[in-house]
Amino acid sequence: MKNALMFFSLFVLLSCASTPKPEITTTDRSYPISFDKAWAAVIETLEEEMWEIDSMDKKAGSITTKFMTMGVNRDEYACPSTFRRRGWIDELRCKLRVNVEHIADNLTKIRIDGQIQGRKVYMHRSSDDITHEHIEGWVDCTSTGKIEREMLDTIHNRL
Q: What's the topology of domain 27-158?
């Protein structure tokens, strides 16, 4: 029993040590500008970067985009540990939730949260040695924060 407990403890310790931690990122920034200027910069940036807006409520300061396909640069935008848990991911897509918040006169905070999803695919070889691909659908992945930082940088450069 003692050996089993020691083996289990060692297994848990090694499992945790090998799992990379997601990068801690800041997904919001405050700017010394009016709400209207920040809102306009966000809208212009989303349009310029080809994000299609799904919903927008200026009074609430919220914007949600539709999903945009991001290709296969998996490790840049989604934490690699996600793929070990989820299986084979062949493509990523992302939707953004942007919040523009009036803090004080000439002080506005912009927050961006990206929802990353990966298309899960199951591959198998049939008896006649032909590889078949079965798409299982989209699964949520953990964002590295890169897409959020890129968008905040682009908005910052516009201000």
A: Alpha-D-Glucose-1,6-Bisphosphate; Chain A, domain 4 (3.30.530)
